[in-house]
Amino acid sequence: MLKPPIAPMLAKLSTSLPEGDGWLYEPKWDGFRALVFRDGSEVYLQSRDLKPFNRYFPELLEPLAQQVPQRCVLDGEIVIASPEGHLDFDALLLRIHPAESRIKLLAARTPSSYVAFDLLALDGEDLIAAPQEKRRALLEKVLSRDAARLPDAGDPRSRGGTGLVLPIRRRGSRRRGGEAARRRLPA
Q: pTM (2 decimals)?
């Protein structure tokens, strides 16, 4: 089983979309990049800076423990949806606060969601070197078991939901820690 810390694959700014067939695209989520490590009853959230996120997003721990496989590592994004359904990065920034009482209050008022877009390990098998299609198919399979229990599982704006999105990587490409994927950002 993979253990934290693991450097997430980060995006690179690109002025154009890649040419040719075989590319998959993912929206730019307005959230905090986070890896989820689940080993039995233990859930650990890791930031892109390799630091723990558990204390800042306590409302995610129980749903992740219930909805993801017993032994897995996910790559994704923590987001907060506004009442209008827009992703609210400012509300997310407020969660990084030194006072535990403030974090608990904000977790109740503005709960976060986790958008999973990659599966790095499953049942003790390290999938980092596996092709993206295999990781994506496994991710959809393992999270679909619980999709009926999630509110609108395909829409990360739904409170408490987990969205599945497609990473921008060439089909068949291998994932390498810290290596960037191309992503077109708005001008």
A: 0.77
